[in-house]
Amino acid sequence: MDLLHTLFYFAIAIGVLVSIHEFGHFIVARKVGVKVLRFSIGFGKVLWSYQKSPNTTEYVLSAIPLGGYVKMVDEREDEVNEADLPYAFNRKSVWARIAIVAAGPIFNLILAIALFWSVLVIGEAGIKPILGSVEASTLAATAGFSEGDEIISVNDKLTPTWTAAMSSIFSGALEGEESIKVAVKTLDDQQIVRFLAVPASDAQNPDVLYARLGFKPWSPKLKPIIGKVLPDSSALFAGLRSGDLIISANGVIMDDWLQWVDTVKISPNIAITLIIERDGVQLPLMITPKEVIVEQKAVGKIGASVLVPEALIKFVSIEYALSPVEAVPVALEMTWSYATTTLKMMGKMFVGSASVENLSGPISIAQYAGQSASMGLVHFIKFMALVSVSLGVLNLLPVPVLDGGHLLFFVLEAIRGRPVSEKIQGFFQKIGMTMLLSLMSLAMFLDVQRIFH
């Protein structure tokens, strides 16, 4: 994927999420009478700033886009003019300070609700959750699933698309449910409920879990008919056209498209003798697949796709949308579900019952931003909603330096009737900073590891 494309959409996603987070702090601070000196998106060198007058808020864009901050009048940080003392953060009631600090993550969760609502109202296209062949010894086989089963709901939650079905099953597994209720419609149009048992050990890593589940989308046998031919491809140079039927390759009859794909894969830079049928006439052709490295292995590619019948596309495709009113409770439920799943996964990683490989750093998030944007607006909006949930939940954790850490100190102050000493706060701030830097370093390491593997 193009690097500039990835960076562009990563900047948009982070810019929006950080702006909303900091705007939450900013607007509530203003509402409770705290003077805001600077509203910054990003850290480091200032690239752009605007300030209407010396006595108003300065709005800033800085060079490092991975965050932002709201600088308020506060006697603990700087010397404050006597005229500004009534507007100092530290002089406000503990409940006002709690409201200011909590507003950032809460605004992220509100944004997630709004984004999920948008996705539901706009609607999204997907493929129906129809199962392909179920391999023996997988969890799906053990539960009695068969090829052709269409998943209707998971734990009584409707799952109109493959993505929705897999997401609900994964959520149930990550939440530690011993038995996941899956309603399916069989090939003979019967509705049956099956129960999927997921061992706790399998729920630690999503990749391992997916392999153990054994769910694969239904893939019909397609004739080896050429669909789209890409420019500057082996298919184009060989003279293949849309609609050509591949009869044989190196004397072997081609029964379906996957057989042809396998033949191409094992022939990088090796000429293949073809017999094709075009307009009812059989013709000989010679094609040499280009060598492409996939997962450190050389495979052949010709740059052509299969022709999929229109009737088949309509059969497996589905468009799912809700009215603006119907979408509200569903968006709330989605945000709650993702938030609780995120918390449970963090808890499992903390106690060692889930793999730390589930962590994603800025490189992975940037890649997801680019990939989701290339799939369309709805996918990009959903990506931002998911990250916004994670950002909101992460910042509410009671870890010093995060918003949740400050909230913990303020709650203790409300209970005790006096603030926690600055010495104790400073000590825990150092611990929190160490924890955060360690977590960020681990996430970056895992990101780099994923790139090289």
Task: Output the radius of gyration.
Answer: 28 Å
Low-pLDDT residue intervals, each spanning 5 or more residues: none
Mean pLDDT: 87
Q: Tally the helices: what do you get?
A: 13
Strands ordered across the widest β-sheet: 5-4-6-7
SSE arrangement, N to C: HEEHEHEEHEEHEHEEHEEEEEHEHHHHH
Strand count: 16
Classify the beta-strand content into a percent band: 15-25%
Characterize the overall form: elongated
| Share of helix, binned | 40-55%
Care to describe what's here?
By secondary structure, this protein is α+β, with helices and mostly antiparallel strands. It has helices spanning 3-31, 94-122, 139-142, 162-174, 206-213, 234-238, 257-265, 310-316, 324-351, 362-375, 377-396, 403-416, 422-452; strands spanning 36-50, 58-72, 124-127, 150-154, 157-158, 179-185, 191-197, 226-229, 245-249, 252-253, 272-278, 281-287, 290-294, 297-301, 304-306, 317-320. Strands 5-4-6-7 form a 4-stranded antiparallel β-sheet. Strands 10-9-11-12 form a 4-stranded antiparallel β-sheet. A hairpin with a 2-residue loop joins strand 13 (290-294) and strand 14 (297-301). The radius of gyration is 28 Å and the shape is elongated. The mean pLDDT is 87.
